[in-house]
């Protein structure tokens, strides 16, 4: 399982209700059911992934998070998870608002555009960065609203969204990000995982 | 072609029937008892009774979901999905299907003899609802000794029965797959049903439903009613691809009103084949039941109330080219289930085959159905342990 998923799973208490937005083939969902006895539902846009989830006996709704989050009642889940897709929405702010409405807490992970490899790629080669976390070229990337960990940090403060915890993930390690180490972690984390309330 | 009376006499010997001895209060306020429910089963109920699947049929279906229909000698209406090795595998599961009341394959319906008058009911048959159909079928589960089903499923009107079943008898099934259906009948669907009814009633043979006396059917009207149905079961694209403007075994137009086009010939064939197996009054009654269906109307708190406290695991399936029960309508069911906190999955099958997709060989649909039921079986067994 992806390191990011392990971090997310560690942030979750046992025996709760979770909505996994953009749940893919359900690997995180399966893990949460098995390890934490979590009641988990998924929302997924890719038909193939929806079927994979169904075959595994996972509860999944085929649909687009950009337009279909309204179907979930307010505070109907303890946690809502959105893994590395916020930047792909036309209107990430609206999606985030919906996530915060549906969940008592929200976990969001973002691919960090402030990661040093991304920065150096643009600085030295003068080209849009293509990395493992950002594998697409400028013309076919689904990522419309790239941001850095610092950007998202500032965004939450500006919008008065309560940040409970931020974890930075890179190949070697995972570490907690605080205001005091934000600059350096923004440089060395590939992915930032935010726990919001 | 056998006469209708001859066909119905022949039917009576081969049909499994359950006599409903307990009183049932119909929505129209009539209380009824001592009538029959025709049904069929496939596969075997296992010792733990954890492999029973109830299938609800659609408007013109019957209890013969699989194998060969012994009355028509044609394939059961859902052979694509139900049978040995199929998505609903009868080597593994015990499948139950009953003919709805109001129908004409052996269950209590308008062509049956009214014991009071010794004549067929005709229009004296009570106007029944989807809820009435479902209440009667529930007694069959008692009769078969099944407390909790592994799964219940059905498409179109079968799906509507299923949603009603889940709302009226919560947790009588571990899982449910409503296919291409809705929680109420749309204006468009009521309009199409009205077209079918008007076609039947406009046939002079119909005579306010008293045609049984003469041992005939309002064939022309019933055939037109069926043609309307057939158009609505296909998609525009599917129909264009299948028929286009192709002519029926001729090189050019014949400058007449015979079936020049293949699509005309197809509709005529479907229409007139149908009158041999279906009773016109049954169409009136069953379409009426569909039109009256509105689950939210039955519960004060609307749909959320209808589905509250559901432990049943739902999988709603829609078809992208279905314009009779659109994806949007199916999604509304999902939203209602979600709002009630029910466990619900949803998948839209991308296909050009229209509303008919659940009846024909649509591999993606069948794979999804199988995957869900098999995974639910494992869960159900674990729950029972």
Structural features, described:
The complex is a heterodimer of chains A (197) and B (385). Chain A is an alpha/beta fold and 197 residues long. Chain A has one domain: Vaccinia Virus protein VP39 (Rossmann fold), CATH 3.40.50. Chain A is built from eight helices and eight strands. Chain A has helices at 3-11, 27-36, 47-55, 65-68, 92-102, 116-125, 149-158, 182-188; strands at residues 17-21, 39-44, 59-62, 77-83, 103-111, 163-169, 174-176, 191-196. Chain A has an eight-stranded mixed β-sheet, with helices on both faces. In chain A, strand 6 (163-169) and strand 7 form a beta hairpin. Chain A is globular. The two termini of chain A are 26 Å apart. By secondary structure, chain B is an alpha/beta fold. Chain B has a single domain (4-186, 296-384), classed as 3-Layer(aba) Sandwich (Rossmann fold), CATH 3.40.50. Chain B has helices spanning 4-14, 130-144, 157-168, 187-201, 219-233, 236-242, 262-274, 280-292, 295-298, 302-306, 327-339, 363-384; strands at residues 16-20, 24-25, 31-32, 35-42, 52-56, 82-83, 88-89, 94-98, 113-114, 119-120, 149-155, 173-179, 313-319, 343-349. In chain B, the strands form four sheets. An eight-stranded mixed β-sheet of chain B has the order 1-4-8-5-11-12-13-14, sandwiched between helices. The radius of gyration of chain B is 20 Å and the shape is globular. The termini of chain B are far apart. The A-B interface holds A 41, 47, 50-51, 53-63, 68, 71-73, 76 and B 313, 315, 331, 334-335, 338-339, 341, 343-348, 350, 364, 367-368, 371-372, 374-376, 378-379.
């Amino acid at each position: 399982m992806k390191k990011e998923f392990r971090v997310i799973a560690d942030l979750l208490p046992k025996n709760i209700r979770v909505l996994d937005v953009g749940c893919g083939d359900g690997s995180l969902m399966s893990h949460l059911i098995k390890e934490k006895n979590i009641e988990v539902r998924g929302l997924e846009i890719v038909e193939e992934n929806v079927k994979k989830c169904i075959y595994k006996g996972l509860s999944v709704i085929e649909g687009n998070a950009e337009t279909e989050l309204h179907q979930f009642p307010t505070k109907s889940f303890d946690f809502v998870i959105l893994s590395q897709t916020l930047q792909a929405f036309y209107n990430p702010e609206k999606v985030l608002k919906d996530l915060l409405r549906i969940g008592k807490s929200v976990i969001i992970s973002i691919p960090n555009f402030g990661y040093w490899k991304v920065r150096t790629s643009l600085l030295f080669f003068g080209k849009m960065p293509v990395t493992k976390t950002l594998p697409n070229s400028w013309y076919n990337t689904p990522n419309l609203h790239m941001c850095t960990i610092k950007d998202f940090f500032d965004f939450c403060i500006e919008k008065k969204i309560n940040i409970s915890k931020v974890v930075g993930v890179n190949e070697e390690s995972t570490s907690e990000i605080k205001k005091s180490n934000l600059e350096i972690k923004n440089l060395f984390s590939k992915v930032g995982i935010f726990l919001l309330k | 072609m056998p006469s209708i009376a001859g066909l119905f006499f022949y039917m009576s010997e081969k049909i499994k029937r359950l006599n409903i001895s307990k009183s049932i209060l119909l929505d129209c306020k009539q209380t009824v008892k001592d009538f029959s429910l025709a049904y069929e089963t496939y596969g075997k109920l296992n010792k733990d009774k954890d492999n029973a699947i109830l299938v609800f049929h659609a408007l013109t279906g019957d209890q013969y979901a699989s194998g060969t229909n012994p009355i028509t000698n044609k394939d059961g209406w859902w052979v694509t999905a139900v049978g040995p090795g199929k998505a609903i595998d009868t080597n593994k599961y015990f499948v139950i299907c009953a003919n709805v009341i109001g129908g004409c394959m052996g269950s209590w319906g308008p062509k049956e003899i009214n014991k009071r008058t010794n004549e067929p009911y005709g229009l004296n048959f009570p106007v029944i609802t989807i809820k009435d159909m479902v209440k009667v079928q529930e007694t069959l589960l008692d009769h078969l000794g099944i407390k909790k089903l592994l799964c219940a499923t059905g498409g179109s009107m079968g799906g509507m029965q299923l949603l009603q079943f889940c709302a009226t008898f919560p947790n009588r099934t571990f899982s449910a797959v409503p296919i291409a259906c809705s929680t109420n009948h749309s204006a468009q669907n009521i309009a199409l049903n009205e077209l079918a009814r008007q076609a039947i009633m406009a046939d002079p043979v119909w005579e306010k439903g008293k045609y049984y006396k003469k041992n005939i059917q309002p064939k022309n009207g019933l055939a037109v009613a069926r043609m309307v149905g057939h158009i609505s079961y296909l998609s525009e694209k599917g129909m264009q691809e299948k028929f286009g403007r192709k002519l029926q075994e001729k090189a050019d137009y014949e400058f007449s009103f015979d079936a020049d086009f293949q699509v005309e010939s197809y509709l005529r064939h479907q229409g007139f084949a149908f009158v041999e197996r279906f009773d016109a009054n049954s169409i009136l009654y069953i379409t009426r039941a569909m039109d009256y269906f509105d689950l939210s109307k039955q519960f004060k708190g609307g749909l959320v109330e209808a589905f509250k406290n559901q432990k049943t695991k739902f999988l709603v399936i829609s078809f992208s080219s279905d314009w009779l029960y659109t994806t949007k309508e199916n999604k509304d069911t999902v939203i209602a289930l979600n709002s009630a906190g029910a466990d619900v999955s949803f998948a839209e099958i991308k296909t050009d085959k229209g509303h008919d997709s659940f009846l024909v060989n649509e591999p993606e649909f069948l794979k999804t159905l199988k995957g869900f039921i098999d995974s639910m079986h494992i869960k159900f067994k674990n729950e029972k342990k």
